[in-house]
Amino acid sequence: MTQAWLLPEYVEDILPPYSAQAETLRRRLLDLFDGYGYDLVAPPLVEYLDSLLTGAARDLDLKTFKVVDGLSGRLLGVRADMTPQAARIDAHLIDHDGPTRLCYAGPVLRTKPAGMSSREPFQIGAELFGHAGIAADLEIQELLLASLDSAGVPDARLSLGHAGLFRALAEAAGLSEGHAAALFAALRGKDVPEVEALSAALAEPWREAFRQLPNLYGGAEALQQARAVLPDQPAIVAALDQLDRLFAAGSALGLASVAVDLSDLRGDGYHNGATFAAYAGGQARAVALGGRYDGAGSVFGRGRPATGFSLDLRQILDCLAQPAARGGILAPWGDAAELRAKIAELRRAGERVVVELPGQEAPRAETGCDRRLAQTDGGWTVQ
Fold first, then answer.
1. How many CA atoms lie within 13 A of 220 on its CB side?
2. Which residues span the domain enclosing 298?
3. pLDDT tens for residues 322-346?
4. pTM, full prediction
5. Is the CB of residue 313 less than 8 Å from the CB of residue 22?
């Protein structure tokens, strides 16, 4: 190969100083999750395909790389999302009667990028199983906002929606699977002309309901408007009631920058209740996604209420200012006991000490050092 250094499209290295910044954020977020009582799990990178894509998670099929297992001959899938894996762990491996809090951090791989992003997101998330009440949703939303604040993401805001609302409208309107998928994609992309074209042949009140969805965003007034313009169907009213309670409770707890957007739809298929997306200043694409996916573990033997969120650490880095070089101390090579003791002392104190190897003196800029360890009359000192 004449260009052996080339990587596949939308796959990239993370280089210094961004790689160090990413690792610092990973540790910080996992420590934050631990403070809320979330236990870290580490699911495998590959599983049998029928395990990864069971139930509603089959929507992940087109995003999942498939390989043949050389041992069993069965199809394996490289994980494209860790949420279904967490649901499997809760349902099959952790036998808690009460709520279970799990978190995870690791790379996932997708066959296609989302926009211009990497096909190898580094996914960090938290999932709460076993509680169907609004308190669980609020805890997850609070944890997400705390995560973005801890990472230093500017101007974070939360957009609430409901996965069941679109499904209720699609079923009541009698949409075919293909028609519903096309309309779902148009709404998710905020393509109002396409929404109008796809709903043109529908009977009222369904045609007007789909056309109104992109306009139903904002504060509590958006939910009031939704009750006025959407059909008075039990499933639709139930979804709006849930959002009303969630919005009011979040406001009472002081969750800042929370709004409603009824056309902000999730696309992975397992969400079936209240959902949310987090946005940051300067980013058009959501930096985190989450919501209800009750019953996702039923195929593994235990379908429990569940809610959670995940974010892509690579995308979070794009929201932040360029990290400053850490700096360090450049030390000469030598076997003198005093010199080696001083280097060890500095490293124990948290300093980064780079030793110049004999005959390999490099420009100081390449070492990343901004100081030097030099011998003086008083011994070895940092200059």
1. 9
2. 8-153+283-324
3. 888 788 999 999 989 999 999 999 9
4. 0.89
5. yes
